[in-house]
Amino acid sequence: MPDDRDRPTQSAPRDPDDAQHALERVESSLRRSDRVGVERELERELDRLHPADVAYLIEALPTADRLTIWQHIKSADSVIDSGAVLLELSDGVRESLVASMTPDEIVSAVEALDADELADLAPDLPPRVLDRLSGELTVEERERLRSAMSFPDDAVGARMDFEMVTIRDDVTLEVVLRYLRRFDALPDQCDQVFVVDRHDRLLGSLPLDRLLINEPDTAVVDVMRTDLLTLRPEDDAGEAAQAFERYDLVSAPVVDELGRLVGRLSVNEVVDVIREASEEAQLSAAGLREEEDIFAPVGESIRNRAPWLLLNLVTASIASFVASRFEHTVGRIVILAFLMSIIAGIGGNSGNQTMTLIIRALALGRIGGTNVRQLVVKELTVSVLIGLGGGVIAGGFAYLMSGRLAIWPVMAAAMLANMLVGAALGMIVPLTRARFGKDPAIGSSVLLTFATDTLGFLIFLGLATMVLL
Amino acid sequence: MPDDRDRPTQSAPRDPDDAQHALERVESSLRRSDRVGVERELERELDRLHPADVAYLIEALPTADRLTIWQHIKSADSVIDSGAVLLELSDGVRESLVASMTPDEIVSAVEALDADELADLAPDLPPRVLDRLSGELTVEERERLRSAMSFPDDAVGARMDFEMVTIRDDVTLEVVLRYLRRFDALPDQCDQVFVVDRHDRLLGSLPLDRLLINEPDTAVVDVMRTDLLTLRPEDDAGEAAQAFERYDLVSAPVVDELGRLVGRLSVNEVVDVIREASEEAQLSAAGLREEEDIFAPVGESIRNRAPWLLLNLVTASIASFVASRFEHTVGRIVILAFLMSIIAGIGGNSGNQTMTLIIRALALGRIGGTNVRQLVVKELTVSVLIGLGGGVIAGGFAYLMSGRLAIWPVMAAAMLANMLVGAALGMIVPLTRARFGKDPAIGSSVLLTFATDTLGFLIFLGLATMVLL
User: Fold this and answer.
1) pLDDT digits (tens, 9 = 90+) for B398-448
2) In sequence order, what DSSP letters do the residues of A396-441 get, joined into one string?
3) Does B390 sit within 8 Å of A191, measured CB to CB?
4) What is the total count of domains within chain A?
5) Same domain flag for A339 and A241
6) B367: distance to nearest CA of chain A, Å?
7) From B214, B366, B393, residue closest to A294, measured CB to CB
8) Of A45, A76, B279, B449, whose CB has the highest number of CB atoms within 10 Å?
9) Nearest residue, CB atoms, B212 vs list A177, A235, A357
10) Based on the number of CB atoms within 10 Å of its own CB, is B33 exposed (0-12), middle (13-18) or buried (19 or more)?
11) What ipTM does this complex have?
12) Pair (B320, B459) in one structural domain
């Protein structure tokens, strides 16, 4: 069925810095005092931009300027596809712009979107608007919207689109070429057309390059690929992304349990999946729940950051309470107070190295049943060796600071022991979480720091009490 | 010029978990006692795999097993393309396998590779072998190899390939279709053919979908795209990747200063660029210089991890030395010893949140000249509010532990102050590094922790000395 979408395509820039320059010009336009002049300059700058660049511009500007620009974009005479811009925006910014729109404005902005795109926006749309939009869809489109919304965000089903060109296997390439000429446009990132039987079951794929290099009288069945990677809607999008990376794919078919073609995953979604996973890892490592719009209200930022800081405050307080059981020891040898944080810190840092490597190896599927033992032996060996070296140095420092020779072995032994604690937990925590099907990265660092702080204090002050008092 | 590569293409698996299952079977094959049986089973399992899957298998196995498998792969009767496998391996593993090969074996493994692929392997090949390979290339290929090796790894020039199909603008689509039929294969991820003049200057591009949907008698000049993103070899690969993400590109032309087409960047390289950047960020956040093969020798792991741990040991020792100037105060009120690490920790954690968000905003190009002031105001406001809340809680805890009411405001004020230190440095360090064209992420966290530890101890113990003694 020929695709009938004929959105005006805004142009991609000729050079990757283009959007950056447009931002500078728009910023200075917005500083103009006359409203009409602002409007005219915005039109000149914005209307030639790709929706993704418009979205970038909006995100780089403070809230008031965003609304000025958005006012221009949703006006009737703007050629910018406001639905496409909404798709490209991050969640927080999108929500705030949608909040500034009337139901009619929202409907006219997004009604041209495909079902899979609408599904991406759905969580940010008012339910009443969503019902109205859904009512305007064809039965097939409504079914697709329902399907796309029914999968979690990390499933292939939520990431796939429905823009597939399908052909039968009993025709010649000549017929396929003539058929394709009836389209106004092929789907984005279309590198293959899918070969299906009359029940829509996937038989294979005809890559465009095979279509182009073979003679027109060749039959599809003679040149189609049958060894292609097929996904299921419930597959994990991250694993699908690894397959795309490994086999350098541009698109892959998605089939249901009966082998019927139900969708297509394309590399642009895969790039988003990879980027999002990487962002999430970076943010959650710093205890942030989500990306923060730099101009977000202060209240939102506090909600984003405070819970983790509070959790850390609690664990640090517990560690400090545990350490305070040695008040008598520290009262006698005050210098221990200043040395104990060195022991706690090195255990956390070293454990964090181990944990990072384990989490990465798990993500790459490199840790299986048989190699865990070797891994454990290696990590402990590395920790013992670095711990011995570091312990001798730190012990020397402790001796210089305190003038007590007996503190040297205490410091060295405590450092070695706490590095082993760090290495052990750096392995146990992510491996255990992974074993129970949980994301090995989440929460692991808080637990690790808690353990290396508390046990670091305990080991060091405990040893000091035994040896030095 | 028709492409003459006709490597046997190994098949992609039908399902993303396929490689995982193959690994399990290969692991059990390797445990067999009879050498011939091992060899036969390896052949059955490995020969049907994609080179990327073979590489995955090798990386998941211990060193001895790797060599057994590699022995099989480089044997004359294996159908596996050992050059393609080498390309997919991570640097450390590749080096160790190359080290096990004779010069002749290396040459026969990699001589079928393209210039850009050879350039990727070059750093791991013995210089004499590289000279020999280079001598076997055509003049054009040798020039490409030289060019690809002359760019740093993060430049488009090091990432581009040379597999371009070019046409003239004065022909019809019919001529293009006939021309393409002369090829044995089109380049991987070929979504467009480039339109050049007789001096190889890029005039535009004919996307394959435009070739397919338009009538054969249409002239190329009437349907070619002229508004396409063009890259330069010296462009930053990360910025090019952002452009691919924004505009959902599959490939982009690379031109020299005269506008001549010199190469092509494709989305599979872009995916690698994004993945590598994300890995680097994760590893360097934990103070690791590079990815560590889990079966790497212990010495290599120590070299990878010890420098950063040593640096942290030094900064922690300095912070502890600074704090020890307050030995008299702590000697009088021992409980301070256990509270000071809470102050240091919260400042580091909070500063790390700010720093992570700033580094991300910088990477996305969202921080420009005019919005820095707003950003600073917002970050400080958030820190003051969380600092006040957290300070009151932590002060209450300090009061409960010490029984001294006067410690409450000391604890609260020190926490607030150290959170402001963290927020300020979390902004200043990455912004300053970025201003001087340096990577804002590298080294920032060590500097931040050093400052929040040292100043946290100073502020808390200084205030305590003034108020409580």
Assistant:
1) 999 999 999 999 999 999 999 999 999 999 999 999 888 888 877 788 999
2) HHHHHHH--TTHHHHHHHHHHHHHHHHHHHHHHHHHHHHHTTS-TT
3) no
4) 3
5) no
6) 7
7) B366
8) B449
9) A177
10) exposed
11) 0.88
12) yes
